[in-house]
C-alpha cells in the first residue's frame, strides 16, 4: 500500500471527486462543527501550509495516524524485532528525524514493557544512529558548517535517552578503508573521473550506502533504517524509469531490501512528505539543512517535475508509488527467515507467514557492482566479448545505466577508474563474472577442430 | 553537463570538418539521438536503416500483406508513408500499401491536413481511403467540444479514432495497420501510465505490435525513431506535411509528460530510449496483463466490457450525459447495465444521431 487513505486528498488516492459536491459538504461540515474527523471531540489542527487535509484532524489524531502507519510497516514486515540491533541513518532532514523519533518511541515502549514484565523474556532492541559526513566530496569542505551540524546531531541523539543510543559519524571516504587525506583525495579523484553530472550524484549515493553498510556491519547492527518517504520514492520511480532501470526498480521501492549484508528497511514508506513536515512542525522536531552542491542533472529535473504534478493533483505521488508497487518484487525484498535460536518464536512465525506471499522461485544471481541493482538478461548478454582485461570485466559486470552514466568510455580511463573504486565494489566483479561455457568447451576440443571458429558457424 | 556534450567540449577546438560517418562530406546537422555531426546523405541512410532494422528484427511484415498507413497529414504519417514506400521498394518487402485517413470534423485543422493527405496520395502513388466521424458516429469533434468543453475531448477523439481506423482497415481489407507513433510518443505513454496507475496498459504500451488477437494488428515502425529526427528528415527531404497542433489539445494531461521529456532530451538525448527500455523491462506479472476480451453487445467491436468504450461515450453524448465513460467505472454506469434495463422496459426513444455500427464484420 502506498499510503493510507487518511493522508491524501479527498480521503482516497486516485479517486475522482464526484462533481465537487462531496468536497463542498465536507467544507460546510468543518465550518459548522469544527471537530476532528476522527475522534469527533478535539479541535482540528490547521497548519496553514496550503496543503491538503488542513483542518481535518486534531493534533493527537494526526500524530497517531502517522505513527500508526510507521508501526504497521514495522510489524507487518518484521522490520524490528526484540533481538535486533538497529542502525538509523540520520541525515538531519525531516524524514530521517521523524524516523529516528518513531524508532526511539518504539524503543521506549519496549523498555517500559520489559521493565514491567515479570519474566523479562523479550529483550529490548538496540538502536544506534549513523550520520554520514559527505563534506570530502565537495571540496573546499565547509568544515565549520559540518562541525556545527555534527554537534547538533550529537546533542539530539544524547537527548533521546533512555535508552542510550550510540552515534556514529561516518566520513564518506571511510569506504576506502581509512579516513585519511589520501582517502579524501581518492574520493575526489573518483568523482572527478565521472563526466556525467547525474552519474556523479548517483555514484555518491551508492558510496553513501556502502559507508552505512560498513559502519553497520562493523558495529554489530543487523538492520539499517532509512527514512525514505512516499514522496522520495515517487521521484525515485521516475528517475529509475528515465535512466533505463525499469527492471531493478521494484527492488528499490519495497519496505524491505535484503540484498545488502545489513538489510535495509523503510518504515516511513507509506507516509508523504507533507505529513512528515507537519509532524516536525507540530512536535517541534528540529532539522538541519546542509548547503548542498547545486544539482543540475536528471535527479533535479525529476524533483521539479514531481512538484509540478503535486500542484496539479496532491495525490499524484501516492499514485506513482502505488503503480510501482504493482511491479513484481524480488526474492530479497523480505526479511530472510532464520533458524537463529535467539530470534523469538513469534518473530519466526511472523516471518514465515509473511514470506509465504512471495514467490521464492524467481531468483537473480547477478548484481551490478556499482549500484547493486539486479541485472536483467539483456544487461549481461554481451559478456562473451569481454575477456582478459580487468576493466573489461568491470564494464561487462555493470548494468547498462551505470555503464553509460558512471563508467568512463575509453579503456585506459576505465582501468584507472576501476583502481579508484572501493574494494567492496571491485570484489563483486570477480565474484560475478559469468562463466563462458563456449570458450571453455572449445578449449577442451580445440585439437580436434578442423575449421576456424567463424567458418564452423 | 552530460556525456555527449562533455566529449565534444573535451575534444576542444573547432567542430569536425568532416561527417563522422563517411568522413568525406561536410557535416550539416547534429543528430538528435546521438549528437553526432553528420552530412545529409549519411543522415538519410542511418535514419532509414534504423527503421529497416526495427522492421526486420521485429518481423513486422510478411511478403504479400496489404498494409494500411494511418495518415493524418502530419509529419509522422507523411514521413512514415514516404519511408515505408521507399523501403518497400528498396528491400522488396512485397507489401501492398494504402493510405487511411480519418476526418474528425475539426474545422480549420482537419480539412487542411486532409488536403495534405490527398496530395500525398498523388505524390507517393498510394491509394487513399477517408472515413469521417460524422459518417461513423454522427458526431464531429466540433460538435463534441461544443457539448463537453475542452477538458475530456481528447479521450473522445482517441477512442473514436482507434475504432475508425479499424473500420477503415476492414473496409480496405488490409492485413495490418501501421501508425506513425514515434519514440517520444511511446516514452510519453509509459510515463503517463505510471502517473495514472494503469499497470495493465503499462505492460502493453511498449509493444511494437499490438492487437494480434484483435480485428486488425497494428504496428509502430517508428518505435525507436526520435520525433526531432522525423522533423529533420521531413525538413531536409522537403516533404509536404501539415504542421499545426490540434486546436483542441492544449489541456491534455499528456502535455505534462511531453514538456518533461523535452527537458529531459536536452539533458540526455538517450533518455527517451531509456524510458522505453524501462517500460519493456518492468516486472509485471503476466496475470495482470490482459483484461478479458469479448465483444461489444451494441456494435460487435472488440471490448473488455459489455459495451466498447466508443459505444459508451456515444451513448453518453446522445443522451446528453457527457461525463459517462469518463473516469473510473462505477457499478452499472459503464454502458451495459442501465441502458439494457431501459430497452427491456420498452423505451423506444433512440436518438436520430446514434447509428447502428454493427454493419461491418469484425
What does this structure look like?
The complex is a heterodimer of chains A (457) and B (362). By secondary structure, chain A is mainly alpha-helical. Chain A is 47% helix and 6% strand. Chain A is built from 18 helices and six strands. Chain A has a six-stranded mixed β-sheet with strand order 3-2-1-4-6-5, with helices on both faces. In chain A, strand 1, helix 3 and strand 2 form a beta-alpha-beta unit. In chain A, helix 3 packs across helix 9 and helix 7 crosses helix 10. Chain A is globular, with a radius of gyration of 25 Å. Chain A starts with 20 loop residues before the first helix and ends with a helix. By secondary structure, chain B is α/β, with parallel strands linked by helices. Chain B folds into two domains: 233 residues, Rossmann fold (3-Layer(aba) Sandwich); 57 residues, no CATH class. Chain B is 46% helix and 9% strand. Chain B has 14 helices and ten strands. In chain B, the strands form three sheets. A six-stranded mixed β-sheet of chain B has the order 5-4-3-6-8-7, sandwiched between helices. The N terminus and C terminus of chain B are likely disordered. At the A-B interface, helix 7, helix 10, helix 11 and helix 14 of A face helix 1, helix 8, helix 11 and helix 12 of B. Chain B: This is Cytoplasmic tRNA 2-thiolation protein 1. Chain B: GO terms for molecular function: ATP binding; nucleotidyltransferase activity; tRNA binding. Chain B: It is an enzyme of class 2 (transferase).
Amino acid at each position: 500500500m502506498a499510503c493510507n487513505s487518511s493522508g491524501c486528498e479527498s480521503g482516497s488516492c486516485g479517486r475522482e471527486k464526484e462533481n465537487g459536491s462531496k468536497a463542498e459538504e465536507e467544507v460546510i461540515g468543518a465550518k459548522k462543527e469544527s471537530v476532528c474527523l476522527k475522534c469527533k471531540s478535539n479541535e482540528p489542527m490547521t497548519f496553514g501550509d496550503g496543503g491538503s487535509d488542513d483542518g481535518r484532524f486534531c493534533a493527537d489524531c494526526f500524530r497517531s495516524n502517522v505513527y500508526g502507519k510507521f508501526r504497521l510497516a514495522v510489524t507487518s514486515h518484521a522490520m524490528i524485532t526484540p533481538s535486533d540491533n538497529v542502525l538509523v541513518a540520520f541525515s538531519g532532514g525531516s524524514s530521517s528525524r521523524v524516523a529516528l523519533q518513531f524508532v526511539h518511541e518504539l524503543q521506549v515502549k519496549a523498555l517500559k514493557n520489559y521493565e514491567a514484565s515479570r519474566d523479562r523474556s523479550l529483550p529490548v532492541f538496540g538502536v544506534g544512529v549513523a550520520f554520514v559526513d559527505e563534506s570530502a566530496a565537495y571540496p573546499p569542505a565547509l568544515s565549520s558548517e559540518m562541525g556545527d551540524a555534527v554537534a547538533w546531531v550529537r546533542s539530539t541523539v544524547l537527548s533521546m535517552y533512555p535508552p542510550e543510543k550510540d552515534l556514529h559519524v561516518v566520513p564518506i571516504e571511510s569506504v576506502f578503508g581509512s579516513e585519511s587525506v589520501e582517502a579524501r583525495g581518492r574520493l575526489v579523484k573518483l568523482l572527478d573521473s565521472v563526466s556525467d553530472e547525474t552519474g556523479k550524484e548517483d555514484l555518491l549515493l551508492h558510496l553513501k550506502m556502502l559507508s552505512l553498510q560498513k559502519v553497520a556491519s562493523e558495529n554489530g547492527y543487523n538492520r539499517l533504517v532509512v527514512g525514505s518517504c512516499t514522496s522520495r520514492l515517487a521521484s525515485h520511480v521516475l528517475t529509475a524509469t528515465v535512466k533505463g532501470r525499469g527492471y531493478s526498480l521494484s527492488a528499490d521501492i519495497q519496505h524491505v531490501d535484503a540484498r545488502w549484508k545489513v538489510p535495509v528497511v523503510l518504515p516511513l514508506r507509506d507516509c508523504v512528505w507533507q505529513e512528515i513536515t507537519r509532524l516536525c512542525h507540530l512536535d517541534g522536531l528540529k532539522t538541519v539543512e546542509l548547503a548542498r552542491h547545486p544539482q543540475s542533472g536528471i535527479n533535479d529535473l525529476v524533483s521539479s517535475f514531481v512538484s509540478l504534478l503535486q500542484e496539479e493533483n496532491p495525490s499524484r505521488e501516492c499514485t506513482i508509488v502505488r503503480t510501482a508497487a504493482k511491479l513484481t518484487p524480488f526474492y530479497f525484498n523480505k526479511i530472510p527467515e532464520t533458524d537463529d535460536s535467539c530470534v523469538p518464536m513469534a518473530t519466526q512465525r511472523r516471518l514465515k507467514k509473511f514470506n509465504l506471499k512471495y514467490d521464492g522461485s524467481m531468483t537473480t544471481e547477478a548484481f551490478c557492482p556499482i549500484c547493486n541493482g539486479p541485472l536483467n538478461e539483456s544487461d549481461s548478454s554481451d559478456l562473451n566479448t569481454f575477456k582478459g582485461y580487468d576493466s573489461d570485466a568491470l564494464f561487462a559486470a555493470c548494468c547498462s545505466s551505470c555503464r553509460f552514466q558512471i563508467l568512463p568510455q575509453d579503456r585506459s580511463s576505465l582501468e584507472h577508474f576501476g583502481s579508484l573504486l572501493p574494494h567492496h565494489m571491485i570484489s563483486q566483479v570477480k565474484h560475478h563474472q559469468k562463466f563462458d561455457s563456449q570458450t571453455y568447451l572449445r578449449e577442451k576440443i580445440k585439437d580436434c577442430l578442423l575449421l576456424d571458429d567463424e567458418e564452423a558457424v | 553537463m552530460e556525456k555527449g556534450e562533455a566529449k565534444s567540449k573535451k575534444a576542444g577546438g573547432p567542430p569536425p570538418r568532416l561527417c563522422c560517418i563517411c568522413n568525406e562530406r561536410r557535416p550539416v546537422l547534429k543528430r538528435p539521438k546521438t549528437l553526432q555531426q553528420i552530412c545529409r546523405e549519411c543522415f538519410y541512410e542511418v535514419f532509414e536503416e534504423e527503421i529497416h532494422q526495427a522492421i526486420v528484427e521485429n518481423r513486422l511484415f510478411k511478403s504479400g500483406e496489404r498494409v494500411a498507413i494511418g495518415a493524418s497529414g502530419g509529419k509522422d504519417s507523411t514521413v512514415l508513408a514516404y519511408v515505408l514506400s521507399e523501403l518497400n521498394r528498396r528491400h522488396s518487402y512485397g507489401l501492398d500499401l494504402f493510405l487511411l485517413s480519418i476526418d474528425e470534423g475539426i474545422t480549420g485543422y482537419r480539412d487542411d491536413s486532409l488536403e495534405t493527405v490527398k496530395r500525398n496520395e498523388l505524390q507517393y502513388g498510394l491509394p487513399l481511403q477517408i472515413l469521417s466521424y460524422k459518417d461513423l458516429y454522427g458526431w464531429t469533434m466540433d460538435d463534441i467540444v461544443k457539448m463537453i468543453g475542452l477538458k475530456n475531448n481528447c479521450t473522445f477523439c482517441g477512442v473514436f479514432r482507434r475504432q475508425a481506423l479499424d473500420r477503415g482497415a476492414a473496409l480496405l481489407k488490409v492485413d495490418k495497420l501501421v501508425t506513425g507513433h514515434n519514440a517520444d510518443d511511446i516514452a510519453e505513454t509509459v510515463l503517463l501510465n505510471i502517473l495514472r496507475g494503469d499497470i495493465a496498459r503499462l505492460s502493453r504500451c511498449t509493444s511494437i505490435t499490438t492487437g494480434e488477437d484483435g480485428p486488425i494488428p497494428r504496428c509502430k515502425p517508428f518505435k525507436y525513431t526520435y520525433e526531432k529526427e522525423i522533423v529533420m528528415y521531413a525538413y531536409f527531404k522537403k516533404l509536404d506535411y501539415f504542421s499545426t497542433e490540434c486546436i483542441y489539445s492544449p489541456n491534455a494531461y499528456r502535455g505534462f509528460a511531453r514538456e518533461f521529456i523535452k527537458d529531459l532530451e536536452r539533458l540526455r538525448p538517450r533518455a527517451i530510449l531509456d524510458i522505453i527500455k524501462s517500460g519493456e523491462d518492468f516486472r509485471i506479472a503476466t496475470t495482470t496483463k490482459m483484461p478479458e476480451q469479448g465483444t461489444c453487445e451494441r456494435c460487435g467491436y472488440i471490448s473488455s466490457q459489455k459495451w466498447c468504450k466508443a459505444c459508451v461515450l456515444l451513448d453518453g453524448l446522445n443522451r446528453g450525459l457527457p461525463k459517462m465513460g469518463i473516469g473510473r467505472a462505477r457499478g452499472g454506469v459503464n454502458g451495459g447495465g442501465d441502458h439494457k434495463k431501459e430497452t427491456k422496459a420498452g423505451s423506444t426513444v433512440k436518438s436520430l444521431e446514434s447509428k447502428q455500427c454493427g454493419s461491418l464484420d469484425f
